[in-house]
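Supplementary notes for students who missed Thursday's class. We covered one full example, reproduced here. Read the sequence, then the structure, then the short commentary at the end.
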Amino acid sequence: MTLLSRTARRGVLGVLVAFITLGLLNVFTVPPMLPRDESAHVSYALRVADGDLPRMDDPTVKGVIPHMRTRLPIFTANHPPLLYAVVAVPLEVGIRTGRPQFGLRVARATSLLFGVAAIALAAVLGALVLPGRDDVPVVAAAVSALTPIVPHTMALVYNDAIGVCASTALLVAGMLVYRRGATRRTIAFLIAAAAFAALARSSSLFAFPSAVMLAALGVRSVRRAIAIGAGAGAAAALAGGWFYLRNKHLYGSYLGNGFLARPSGRPIIHRPYLESLVNVRVHRHMLGRLWDGWVFASRLPRWPGWIGAGVEVPALVGLVLATGRRWRARIAPTRDEMIVWGALLGFCAIVVASVVGFVSIGGNAHARYLFPVLPVAGIAVAVGYSRLPRLATVAALVVTAVANVALWHRFLAANGGVESDRFPITEIQALREAGLRGSPLLLGVSLLVVAAGVAAAARSLGSRGDA
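Structure (token representation):
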């Protein structure tokens, strides 16, 4: 049985085309090493290429890639090494061939590929959660791909893309066992996803409890359910356990959080966990930053946050309408709904609890820490918009795509090292700064491809099943 219908596949493909194009535009036009964290991530990869695992207080690598921030430590060294082993290849090739900036851009594009996989998995998750609905996979993919901060962040040498890819893979694996039973393929996928998550990013493992719970409830035998959970846990422990034990030994905690002082020298302020949990300002800040939280966000306007609210509030209204309709009809949640949504919401709760914990020990409230919940949020958005006129879904998709392009323009005008702040002169100059020939034609074709992808997704949303 095919998970996605032909209509849904066309829509998801359109979303992927738009995401890849927007991502590649960021790959080439964001100045090398402008994002502060990129120097730490790239230095980690270069140390791995030399056969070494860095410590969080080791200095960044000097003298090999221009614009490296040499006053920062490799504060990302508490993350597992899988991404860094992968992107070390293009970085080393670029350095050895005398084209380090080209190697950096290939490394960025490699990271972007994990984002592509994550979005495809988000669509599959939507199809598994609400089978038979053509709109849900498309909207889940769109929320995961086109929330404006996503193409920008996943186009950098950051580990957020691989982290979301791994956590979504775990959720999909658990749902596959739940929906289709414990076959060799579904169990192998679950075990592989657990191992992948352990080596991708610690936050990827937040999906492990939900995935194992779904898989356990997908089999009738208690003994087999225990064996599945034990096998997945053993795979994760064998793949990445050694690294988290290393963190514990070096930094005093398995995740390595709170080990270093702020590079800026500002004091770290610790807050009680409960105070951080109920701090509305922190949550509002993170949700708003999903729309305007690009690199050097302080240089960007604040209007994208209001556009984000204009896209998200109708979904909430739709969810309220759907809930009210079921309440009036006295339709109780089915066992399947309670299991599936309980697992998904439990995963989201773990992610939010972790972010709150990080903020409480003085960590920054980066919106990208919420990326793992975007596939689940996308499914909920699809349910909400299904109670509204179909044109509303299409309008939200178009507005979000336009916001991506507008924010890219404002970012380049503020940070791209270009003289003009007028569209499309700014974009053309930024592409030329990246060494790309035929910049006017390249920009025009890129924007047409984004529009074509969005149009394909919008067209597929014209046909959708019932909630």
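Commentary. The two ends are 21 Å apart (CA to CA). The chain has a mean pLDDT of 91. If anything here is unclear, bring it to office hours.
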